[in-house]
Structures are given as C-alpha cells and as structure tokens.
Amino acid sequence: MKKLLFLVPFFVCIGINAQLSIVSVNTNYIIDFESSIVGVNNGVLNASGFSSDPQIGQLDSDGIIITGCSDGEMNFGDEKPDGDFARGSSTGGKTTGGIYACEVEENNYALGMQPTGGDLSEGAIILKVSNQTGNTIAELSVLYDIWIYNDQGRSNSFNFLYSTDNVTYVPIPELDYSTAEAADESVIWTKKTQTTTFTIQISDTENAYLKWISDDVSGDGSRDEIAIDNIQIKATSAGNNTDIRFKSEQLVSIAPNPCINQLTIQCKNQIKDISVYDLSGKLILSKKDVFQDKIVLPISDINSGIYMIKITDQKGKTEVRKFVKCK
C-alpha cells in the first residue's frame, strides 16, 4: 500500500515491547510495512534487522520473526540487527540470501525473502497475534498479498499455517502457493492475493501464531524473491456470526500521528461512535452518536502512550487504528 507519511514516526515518543494485539472483534487490522504497527514494525520497513525495541525501519522481534537463516535460528524477543536478517532494500534481482525490504511498486514496501541453498529455502515468517478483546476468539479471517519476482528457474512454495502454541501448526491447503518454475521473459513484481477464514479457539490474553513457509518445489538453480504485504486480520468471538469479509479500502483517516492535544478523524461515511483503548484493552474515552464525517477529538487529558482508536460509522462498519499521544 502507498505509505502515509504522517505514520512513519510512530515510535518517536515512546517504545514498547508487544505483539500485535486484537482489542476488538469484527475489526480489520492491517499490516502494510509502511505504517508503524505496535509489535510488528517501526515506520517504513528498510530491512535493517529485528529488535525487541525496534528503531525506524526495523521489525519488532516480540511479534514477528524469521526462521531458516544460516546466520542462526531466531526466537521471539531476539536481537538480529545484521547479516541474513538485515539485507536492506531490494527492487528485485538480489542473489544474497536473507530478508529484504522489497519495493514491489514505487514507495510500496513488502517484507521479502531471497531463498538460497543455505538461506530460507526451508524458511518461515511467523507473526504472533494476541487476543485482548476480553472474550474468546472463535474465528480468524486472514488476507495477504504475495509478491513474486520470477527471474530464476526454480519453483518455491509460500504456504500458510496457524497455531495456538507455536509448536503444532495447522496447514490450510487451499492457500498453498508455488512460484512458476520457468523464469518470466520480462521480469516485474507480480501479486497474488490470498484469503481464508478458519475456526480457532484463542482465550482472552492468549496468542495465535500465523506462519508462512517457503521451501523448494521443483527446478534447479537460483530461487525467486518472494515478499508478503498488506496482511489483514479480523477476529470473531464465540457465538458472533457477523459477516467478517474484508473491506476493499480503508474508510477512516486520522491525523496527526503522533499527536499532542487533538486528533482529527475523517470518515467516508458519517461517524457514529468513537472509542479509545490502551494496549491492555481498557477503554480510555468514548463518544457516542457523533453523526459527522469529520471530528476533532480532544486528547490532551490522556497520558502519553500508544493507543488504539475504534471508529464505527453509521452503517455499522468499524475500523481500528493506532496512534501515539505525546506530551
């Protein structure tokens, strides 16, 4: 997705160690690797490594890790600032194995891997997701884009699995994907969008793990670059049958971010309700029956920190965004 410049300095004011937290069901959480997401990335991805206290451009190792690199295994919370874990930017055509910030379109960055014989040919991306809704999550809906730079004569897989313990994983075969064995004559980044909904039991405060694995399939020689982008996640609580299909576009914008005294919220439809939560899921403030398409929300009285704001429009659709409150 095109980056929103006002979201880049998301961790300017404070740092935090966390994974992606779902605080509201039937709400679309989006990871585009350009906007800062608590527990995933700090600012626009530049593939400068992983850290539990990520600097601008880094990934947050408390919430997302890579396995299968020759420079060593990785666990949640590890510090991996160099080598295979920090190969920098790529527009395609790299040969050194490791993790890249792939510019798949102009100013559109995706989390990419270049598999080689020693790196990531049996590798994985693992995303940790925490249930902070106050209820048991019974269903997850996941959508993501796979980007491929098919310049080599080997086919590699990029398949999806999920787990509740990061040990036993359940595959979803209908999402199995493999790159073409024959290289394209005219090589450009191409995209494949995948989506699924599956039943899962995640108790309140417990975690789920989403995993994308890559392995050799057929052919020989070097391997294509593969990247993931625009990961979207929705949760449904037990007994809730609300339609959780994804919206094709975001309905809400907020600015500035970070902010000090006020936050401007604009919606394509009229705003009905606004709720602000801290990262534990505690309600900090709310406004009901707004019925305006734009509102300036005073926030000078809340403490500095990272918050999630839930906006519900007059049609009942909701979106959740994260923002930083500074002094």
- Secondary-structure content class: mainly beta
- What Rg, in angstroms, do the CA atoms define? 20 Å
Helicity range? under 10%
Reported for the largest beta sheet, the result is: 7 strands, mixed
Strand content: over 45%
Total strand count, please? 22
Number of helices: 0
Q: End-to-end span in angstroms?
A: 30 Å
Low-confidence stretches: 1-17, 241-248
Describe it:
The chain is an all-beta fold. Helices cover 0% and strands 47% of the residues. The protein has no helices and 22 strands. It has strands at residues 20-22, 29-31, 50-51, 59-60, 64-67, 89-90, 98-105, 108-114, 122-131, 137-149, 154-156, 159-163, 170-171, 189-202, 207-219, 225-237, 252-255, 262-278, 283-287, 292-298, 305-313, 318-325. Strands 1, 5, 9, 11, 12, 13 and 15 form a 7-stranded mixed sheet that branches. Strands 2, 6, 7, 8, 10, 14 and 16 form a 7-stranded mixed sheet that branches. Strands 17, 18, 19, 20, 21 and 22 form a 6-stranded antiparallel sheet that branches. Mean pLDDT is 88; it is low at 1-17 and 241-248. This is T9SS type A sorting domain-containing protein.
Itemize the secondary structure elements and their pairings.
Blueprint lengths: L19 E3 L6 E3 L18 E2 L7 E2 L3 E4 L21 E2 L7 E8 L2 E7 L7 E10 L5 E13 L4 E3 L2 E5 L6 E2 L17 E14 L4 E13 L5 E13 L14 E4 L6 E17 L4 E5 L4 E7 L6 E9 L4 E8 L2
Parallel strand pairs: 1-9, 3-4, 6-7
Antiparallel strand pairs: 2-16, 5-9, 7-8, 8-16, 9-15, 10-14, 10-16, 11-15, 12-13, 12-15, 17-18, 18-19, 18-20, 18-21, 21-22
